[in-house]
Amino acid sequence: MPNLKPLIFAQKQKLFALSQRSFQTDLLPEGAKAYINGKWMNSIGATTFEVKNPYSKEVITEIANCDQSDAQIAVQAAREAFQKWGFETTGKERGAILNRWYQILTQKEAELGKILTLEQGKTLAEAKGEIQYSASYFDYYAGEARRIRGEVIPAPVLNRQHFHTREPIGVVAVITPWNFPAAMIARKAAAALAAGCTLVVKPAAETPLSALALAQTAEEAGLPKGCFNVIPADHDRIGDISKYLCESHDVNCISFTGSTGVGRLLLSQSASTVKRVCLELGGNAPFIVFESADIDIAVQSAIASKFRCSGQTCVSANRFYIHSKVHDSFVQKLGEAMSKFVCGNGIEKETTQGPLIHEKAVEKVQKLVDDAVSKGAKIVQGGKIIKGTTCYEPTILTNVSESMEIANEEIFGPVVAIQTFETEEEAIQKANSTRLGLAAYFFTNCMKQTFRVSRRIESGMIGINEGAISSAEAAFGGVKESGLGREGGSQGIDEFTQWKYICLRT
Ligand code: NAD
Fold first, then answer.
1. Where are the active-site residues found (predicted)?
2. Which ligand 1 atom lies nearest to the CA of residue 187?
3. Same domain for 319 and 211?
4. Which atom of ligand 1 lies nearest, measured to the CA of 178?
5. What is the pLDDT of residues 327-372, one digit of tens each?
6. Are residues 500 and 441 located together in one domain of the fold?
7. All residues at 6 or more sequence positions from 455 whose CB lies less than 8 Å from its CB, including other chains
8. Is the CB of 267 under 6 A from ligand 1?
9. Relative to the CA of 502, which of 41, 85, 132, 439 has its CA 20 to 30 Å away?
10. pLDDT tens digits for 121-169?
């Protein structure tokens, strides 16, 4: 059994100086550890790296800095575990474990939420919401594990039976970003484990603690050793580890969520072993408000879509196209709603907007705003870094045009960049003028327009009169350079299974 003595963060007093609260958890190991083959382990080189609170910048803890050798051990553990988990368990048995995992996550929502806020910065309410969202995948795939069906197909001759069976693809290497440290792992892990696959998880360097806490809850749920391994690593080591994972014959699938640039790299590195690569990549979501829209609903949805995680989500509304006739009313109502925001430490109850993940992220947002203003955009509100912090003022920019960087790049910050349009055709053309196609949103009360526009928008997901679209039951994913494959829904199982045709002479 791993050492599960309660961890009291070494810097507890300092860390919670702002909230005057202390925090203990038995969801993380004592000392800096990775989780491999059901054991809490140091990295082979015994090296560690610091995990920092993005708001206070204080060191939360040090954690094992894994390298390629650790990754190899983890892959070996997952390979061995796969023989049993993949072929000697039933869907019903796997589903029962996933269901227990769901229940544990639900019970420990508050504790897991705190860990998440500490390392990621988002507000506690959002962090708990992310734990619920993560749990919902285990709930959903606990049921789906029993419904992974094959087919009996009519043979063209009488003395044969033809079958299509579905098999787990094998060992899945999971590489995830820092914006949803629990949910991006849960969305992959729940489906992969339901299908009978085993996993090696490489979480983002900024947010490895939620991944390790998930490992602890997996063990409590009774997941056999080796099925879920976590190898944290810092930025300097990730390149080597990922290259190994992509090129290893013992890894059958790379499941990545992150930026399009890194996704492209992993796809090319995986070419030598022709393995399956599932990519959930960047977004550049258009948010179109047509003339007939209910402006209050559009504003409410803009808040939900744009400001979750302080704008650092892949499905965040990125380019606002507002019909010129409703522009002023939308801007005014949105401004009023945004004036209620409180920026600060995510752990504080009153905070509605946490910090961005690090200095580089806030500087990038400021650069985009400065570029837009220099080319004629108007700041309606916000527009600055909040002094001495990594928080960025919730911002509205109007008079934005296509020539500005902000109209073409993923902002990943709390900035609403608004352009106007006159016709439906113009709005569709602008919405599609990107190589990315993850999420899109539009607002209308015209039924015919609803169908016309949803057919023509080039995007994997569309919210119509709705700004919060994610759900375990639905297929999440993008088109164009936003990715390959889908997560969630019954489609999520497809990523981790392969078809086998069996021909039986009778
Ligand atoms: P990122 O691509 O920098 O990092 C994601 C993961 O890749 C991390 O684990 C990181 O350590 C690893 N990584 C970084 N450089 C690497 C390299 N050279 N080789 C191999 N691995 C490497 O992305 P991020 O900044 O952590 O996250 C933000 C991005 O993720 C945004 O573009 C966002 O849209 C995207 N995202 C997409 C989805 C989705 O479901 N489509 C969900 C969340 C985030």
1. 280
2. 40
3. no
4. 26
5. 999 999 999 999 999 999 999 999 999 999 999 999 999 999 999 9
6. no
7. none
8. no
9. 85
10. 999 999 999 999 999 999 999 999 999 999 999 999 999 999 999 999 9
